[in-house]
Amino acid sequence: MKRLYLLLTRMLAQPRSWFWAMSQRSRLEAEMEAELALHLESLAADLVRAGYPPAEAARRARVELGSAVVHKDGMRASLGLRWWDGLIADLRYACRRLRRSVIFTTIAVVSLALAIGANTAIFSVAKQVLYERFAVPNPANLRILAWSAKTGLMRGVWGDYNQLPAGHVGSSGFSYPAYEQLRKQNRLFEDLFATKRAGANAIVQGNAQQVSVEMVSANYYAALGVGPQLGRVIQGLDDAGANSAPVAVLSDDFWLRVFGRSTAVLGQTIQMNGTTFLIVGVNPHGFSGVSGFQQSPDLFVPLGMQPVISPHGSAGTLLTDTDTWWVNVMGRLRPDVSDASVQSVLDAQFKAIVRATMPGQTGEEPPQLQLRDGSRGLFPSQDEFAKPMAVLLTLAGFVLLLACANIANLMLARGAQRQREISVRIALGAGRARLLRQMLVESLLLAFLGGVAGLAVGYIGGLRIPKLMQSPWEHGRLQIHFDWEVFAFTAAITLLTGVLFGLAPAWIAARSEVNAGLKKSATSVTRRRKGWGGKSLVGFQIALSTLLVVGAGLFLRTLAGLNAVDVGFRTDHLLLAEVRPTSQQYPLGKDIQLHQQLEREIAAIPGVESVAAAAYPYIAGEIGQTFFVPEGEADKNDGSQMQYVVDVGNDFFPTLQIPILAGRGFGPQDTPTSAHVAVINASLARLRFSGQNPLGKRFRVGMHPSDSNSGGWVQIVGISADTHFSSLRDTLPPQFFLPYVQWPGVGSMTYEIRTQVDAKSIFPALRRAVQRADRNLPLINVRTQQQQIQADMQQERMFVALTSGFGLLALALASVGVYGIMAYSVAQRTNEIGIRLALGALPRQVLGMILSEAAWISLGGIAVGLIAALLLARLVRSMLYGLQPSDPVSLMAGAGLLIAVALAASWLPARRAASVQPMDALRHE
Amino acid sequence: MGDDKQLDLLQGTLDLLILKAVSLGPLHGYGVLLRIQQISGQALVIQQGSLYPALYRLEHQGAIASDWGESENNRKAKFYRLTTAGRLRLEEETEKWNRMVGTMGAILLTQPEGA
């Protein structure tokens, strides 16, 4: 007990004493001075009393007491101040040294700032994109329901529809009756709620505008645990199937943008798709619905308003439709149940529901229900971004390593220059640990400066990178927050960097021989040993640079390859604009007339060469599929008879300039009352009509065999050339085209407008033309086809931007490294070079000697770098296009570039070596 | 440098001596020195300078506390006194010392076998 008490009191007393000493430093010094002075006086007085004369007494007292300075230092050491004082002294000395060698400091800080900044920026983006979780309580127990089934079993899917291996497809859409059943039978979730994201035409501040809408079930907010910041949320009787109330809740962002956060917004109305909605509340800041983090949907309405917001099918409402799979279902798991048990129970329930709605059709393989993690939303970008982010982080890490190697090299050289100073210090009594500490303080200070600058660079990068990831006409704003995790990451890598590049040179310098350092001349044997360390570092740098340059080359060539893809139609001067008429105002038939009218109006705009509407544009990631059953083929109830289809205007082929290989395209003779015709592309002809002439053959079209749109025969009248379809990387798939005027309704269409002048310049006239037809119709997603294609390459372009930046940085660092080491080597070998020149070597030969030394180091580094590139490139094979990971062009170009840079960097030192005067060199030691 | 070794040995004992000296009443630095000399019967002479680092160390650890007061000849002096923790420490160190002395003594008194 006693011992514990003693320990505790000591532990408490020491810090307090230290703090007092630190804060009252001058008083402390004065007190120490006074105490020692008193001691001296008292001692002298006693000696006088003992009989010594005063002067003698004073002298003896001083001798006996000893050096006051030493005692004061001992007193300070007892208080624990020596350590602190030493640190401050080291810091001041480091500052002075860094200030004196401005060039070194600048190079080091700039390269560190860029490297640390790049790492910070990518880390902050990656963290957000990959790991951000919802701002709702307990996101970890949210689950999303999804299913997978054999292709063709589940026919009407509105929403995500993913091709899975082995002829299966998957989706997260459920039919509304299925959702209601699952909810009724639910025992394992706290609650199941439903949601669907869609777009609508709204009148906002007098302008027609497209808004994004999330339709939610009544229990959505309660289940998520989210409350409003103003007014109320969707609840209870708002969502009652066909009797739902037209109420809307605004997102915080929309409230800011449109209403300027005015509290008078409650009770105001907003028109969407012709229906008036009452605004009853505002979502809390930071809540972005469940679809993802990119941007919150503008408005939240009850799910029962689906027939207004997004009518589908002939009845418009999907609330009673058992065959369309559209609504997303999520739930909060009860804490005591396991995922596996929940999945098996739900799967059984789901299979029963599906069998009941599709009797006899499920056969031996009914659809399977799956449970997915819901904490990151319905469509986490994790899937598409995980690999690219990992690649970027790795590359950024390499750049940091490169910067560290660079600075370590420079510090090694500086350490060698300090040889004499360090030897003097050791001779005067400095301990090795103390020296080591001083040099570490210098590197940490350098790292700190680089880290602070790097934070600024990282912040700017964090703002710019998301812009690289998005297309200019979308308004998603991915916001990167700089939170404490990012700061901690930056601090950690800064510390690591400082230790990494500072420790080895400091260690080497502190272990130096005192004698050798103090002598004026030192043998070059000692120096040569150290030269190896520097050379291998430069070799390492060159290897890393090669790796980064080859990487940049691979992505550059991928982008060039994608850019060079011939999409199959003319892409310049082509403007795309989408129009989405609502089905209340434009029921079946009226929408056809609207599109025909718009086609006429737009064609009349001066500067427009031709225009055609299409169900969706090319290279935009959109597809449409339906059954294509040629005459004579039996109906198979699987997906094998589905083909891509595009409903197009009659001028489609001439507008896009897709060649017709046989027969004809569409024209004015194709009207709503003429015979139904179609054009197929060459791939489809090869696939379904191999060996025969498809012209004149007939086929049936439709989602279900009982679809009211099908039944009639469609005749093939032309074969068009192949084009790329939804992306540049796809394989010219089979497609067929139907003239939209011959079908009862099409809904939204994208207008493809070929212009003679710059495409964007017709935008005002285009908007006027649309407004003439209907003042309340907005133009959506106006962009040129080339911009659309660029967007398909967005990720590749971002990669090229970043990796070429890394590559350039790597080249700069490598050249600095090579220059540094060669300059140092030349300086060390001045003596030797002088001897060579005196013995008759030509300056040319000396030049060659230095250059070949540089070349050998570089070749070694390049070889290692190329091997590493070959190994690592295999990991990014899926991201490349049109080339192998072992692409010889990139490898050769990378190697060539590095050799050129290395030779260029060593040119100056080599010339200096060649112009050495033998007499001066021999005198120099 | 030889003094170094002597100091090392004495550091623990120096602390003990200071604590004992101060336990008999508050003293300033010089006074501690005199008192140690006095109670040892002038048999122990301590290096003057090593005193102050030791005093500061003991104060840092909380075994003694200091106040400013007036010395005999009316000069400002820093007086040290024992704290509670210091008193406990003195007892403990004294006990340890006595035990060590006893053990050493017993060892040194051992006769060779069969002498």
Written account of the structure:
The complex is a heterodimer of chains A (925) and B (115). Chain A has a 6-stranded mixed β-barrel with strand order 6-7-12-9-11-10. Chain A has a 6-stranded mixed β-barrel with strand order 18-19-24-21-23-22. A 4-stranded antiparallel sheet of chain A has the order 17-25-16-26. Chain A is of the alpha+beta class and 925 residues long. Chain A is globular, with a radius of gyration of 38 Å. Helix content of chain A is 51%, strand content 16%. Chain A is built from 27 helices and 26 strands. Chain B is of the alpha+beta class and 115 residues long. Chain B is built from 4 helices and 3 strands. In chain B, strands 1-3-2 form a 3-stranded antiparallel sheet. Classes of the chains: A alpha+beta (925), B alpha+beta (115). At the A-B interface, helix 1, helix 2 and helix 4 of A face helix 3, strand 3 and helix 4 of B.
